[in-house]
Design goal:
The complex is a heterodimer.
Chain A lengths: L13 H4 L16 E7 L5 E7 L1 H4 L4 E6 H4 L29 E2 L5 E7 L2 H8 L3 E6 L6 H4 L15 E8 L3 H6 L2 E12 L8 E7 L4 E6 L4 H12 L6 E4 L15 H13 L3 E4 L2 H7 L3 E12 L5 E13 L12 H4 L10 E10 L13 H18 L4 H8 L8 E2 L5 E2 L4 H11 L2 H13 L3 E10 L7 H6 L8 E7 L5 E5 L8 H13 L6 E4 L17 H28 L6 E4 L2 E4 L2 E7 H10 L11 E7 L8 E10 L6 E11 L6 H20 L31 E4 L17 H17 L14 H18 L2
Parallel strand pairs in A: 1-12, 10-11, 14-15, 20-21, 27-28
Antiparallel strand pairs in A: 1-5, 2-4, 2-6, 3-5, 7-15, 8-13, 9-10, 9-12, 13-14, 16-17, 18-26, 19-20, 19-25, 22-23, 23-24, 26-27
Chain B lengths: L5 E7 L2 E7 L5 H8 L18 E4 L2 E4 L12 E3 L11 H8 L9 H12 L7 H7 L11 H26 L4
Parallel strand pairs in B: 1-5
Antiparallel strand pairs in B: 1-2, 3-4, 3-5
Classes of the chains: A alpha+beta, B alpha+beta.
Pathway (chain B): Alkaloid degradation; nicotine degradation
Keywords (chain B): 2Fe-2S, Iron, Iron-sulfur, Metal-binding, Oxidoreductase
GO molecular function (chain B): 2 iron, 2 sulfur cluster binding; metal ion binding; oxidoreductase activity
Amino acid sequence: MTQVMGQAVKRHEDIRLIRGQGQYTDDMKLPGMVYAYIVRSPYAHARITEINTSRAASMPGVVAVFTGRDVKDEVGLIPTAWIPPDADLKVTPHSVLAYDEVRYQGDGVAVVIAETPYLAQDAALAVDVKYESLPVVTDPFEAQKDGAPQVHTDIPNNIAFHWKAGENLDEIFAGAEVVVKQHFRQQRLIPSAMEPRSALAQYHAAQGELTLWATTQNPHIHRLLMSGILGIPEHKLRVIAIDVGGAFGSKIACYPDEVIVSWASKKLNRPVKWTETRQENFQVTTHGRDHVQEVELAGTRDGQIQAIRVKTYANMGAYLSTAAPGVPTILFGLIVNGAYKIPHASSEVLGVLTHTTPVDAYRGAGRPEATFLVERMVDLYAGAVQMDPLKVREKNLIRHEDFPYTNAFGLQYDSGNYQETVSKALQIFDYPAFRREQETLRKQGKYIGVGFSTYVEMCGLGPSEVAGAVGFQGGLWESATVRVHPTGKVSVFTGASPHGQGEETTFAQIVAEELGIPVDDIEVIHGDTAQIAMGWGTYGSRTTAVGGAAIHMANEKILEKARKIAAHKLEVNEEDVTYDSGVFSVRGLPSKGVTFQEAALDAYLAWNLPPGMEPALEGTAFYNPKNFTYPFGAHIAVVSVDPETGDVKLLRYVAVDDVGRIINPMIVEGQIHGGLVQGIGQALWEGAEFDNQGQLVTGSFLDYTVPKARFFPKFETAHTETPSPHNPLGVKGVGETGAIASTPCIVNAVMDALRPFDIQDLPMPLTPQKVWQAIRQAQTKEPAESK
Amino acid sequence: MASQRIPVTLTINGQKIVRDIEPRTLLVHFLRDELNLTGTHVGCDTSQCGACTILLDNQAVKSCTVLAIQADGSEIVTVEGLEQEQLHPIQEAFREKHGLQCGFCTPGAMMLGAYLLNHNGPLTEETIREQLDGLLCRCTGYENIVRSIQRANEIMNERQNAQQAARATGVG
């Protein structure tokens, strides 16, 4: 049989995308459509004392102006859908439009609806809102102190939840030979998907039905949540997301804007579209990361790590966004030991509210924050015990024979050969030669450094029982319907919702391989709740591990039925029928055969089916994964630092990843490249900043550095393939690995370059200014400290 | 003020277009909203991202920085105009080298690529990375965009050579 899985099949989705024929939400146009523009608070914290809409309402082309008071009794609040248990979580009431108090810059207060987008924006400027400004807090550590300004009056010290895992480690730390302590600021990031969010709602009054086109990663979750918020029954609500222009976690959440257009469409009985500006995307679309971390590591003098203890202040922003509480707890706190055999561990997380944009998942979601701290701690510990950071890693990595490995928090890592990825990376990168070159260059006043990151992450979200146990308010299984048409062509319906990851192709490869039919005979349909019964969407690198496994199961059902049909036609027992390259034939009699297409036609004609068999040929499966999957790898970065300017230049980047079985190597490489650039972006350039009044000062692409092409060398990527035993395809997940592994790798490399200056740590992003200042400070204090 | 309309005449993807428009209409909105050429995307409001890049009189231009009336009399090519009898080399190469993921910046990236192909500059990895300064892509990490532009150049040369060979042998 021709091998389709494992091949770099060109992407199906590209056929429309390279012609400019994608169907992004903002491309939609409906007859009678009007446009919404949302008036937003310029203050991070203020009381609304008056809103006067009369001037705006009388402007040309304006259809309606609504305020929070118009909406509040007609729709529900924006919910939080991840409630970690035993964490004393407090719900943060989030109105779709604020009517008494605004809690971050960008909180919506009114909506203008007009005949054109320009007229809506004109009129929005004429909505007169009077505010009385209130005290602001933006830093999570400051916000949880007594006397800090309150974000929600009934949530004392702004602590939205308090989550703990692991054991008391006081005794171990007291008795440890070596203890390393470090404070990390895991800065806030702005996801910056290139497509701004958009929503278009059309209410059909006669049927009481609403269709919502929206930029979402999870249309069925949206349907479920929106049904509750809008009071429209789920079967009368259709959510469509065909092409979504990147998301990286920022299009998981249920946002007020989508509710506003839906409600307004019903109110006005016209289609209403809203598309955010990039400025709104910066201010309102969820941000990521933002931790203050206090980390301690205990170990022996000869490099054996014994325990890790982490206390984190996680900035949640002004409201708890849809999936937000799960990110710094379950997806972070349980994996702070990384890829190492650390027998004892503890995590404590305070989820703290501030007057800032709500935070939710951003590529990696929790796992980059965990990987960063453990990979940095390993380097700091190596420094403390005067060992090579690679030696310390090799000494502490979980070994191949330890799998399945249960970490100190009870997570069971599925499979791995961590040493093999390290060996492979060292085949590409000559470490001893690098150290010699580094020594030579240092003597010439030139500084280069190497950083390692030997990571593991958990993805393929996830077993539904675990989802329930950890408070995720949904299942995490996935659905697939594989529909064979009478001609043998196939439509695949998946509940996952890819938006750039290429599963229209990957999934077609799985079907082509397993059904033995050409890959071009298969079309993958996603992102429409009217066509797909149910599904949980695309995030947490789950699409292929969970959604792909569902397709595999549906394929099995089809093959089983088609085989019966073929056996009946061939007048032999089913057991005597073999299937190869699209033809069922009788064992030992290869000349007699029934093609897959013939079996399909027979199934539909139903003139002569085996007794009792239903007509048609279609398989539906719901796959609930056994466990998470655990991709891993070894990354190596080489940087130079210019001591005169503080400029960091990335010279080489070697990434050896094991993402389980690879279905399309071209797509896998693309996912890794994209992740690397985002992770390296965090290390070197990206960082959201609010001033002390809660104004986002990095509110545009001029002020927030999304990396550009010229910042990077060519990446050197390689793979090992350790199948996951947790799903029938053996796949793990690749969407987030690059972003998870690369950030500490780069920081470790910069710190290695700065070793002669005795600089232990610098807060990200490592901008030239920060690096230059650190070098200057080190040089001026050097005489005082050296003996 | 808002109702005052001004006539513009442009050639877009080889077709003459005459419309009366509001003077403040940005070219990108004119393309998307008036002409339904929604392949050109709006990714930002500060002319940083390049998703709206088009060819305006053979120059790569961000159509969000140009008023439609400023483009009066000019010739414009958008992503919808790239394909002639066959896919443009840049389209073929972007698919072959996986130069796109979500596809949102892609029309702009391809128009910029098409511009680079037609301007006879060196197309080394380094020069292409420099030339991509006006483009933000959050998915690909750029490496495959660079490869795509280099591959497009090869495809263009291959097609030219094939044409020349066909002419030389008197075929086609």
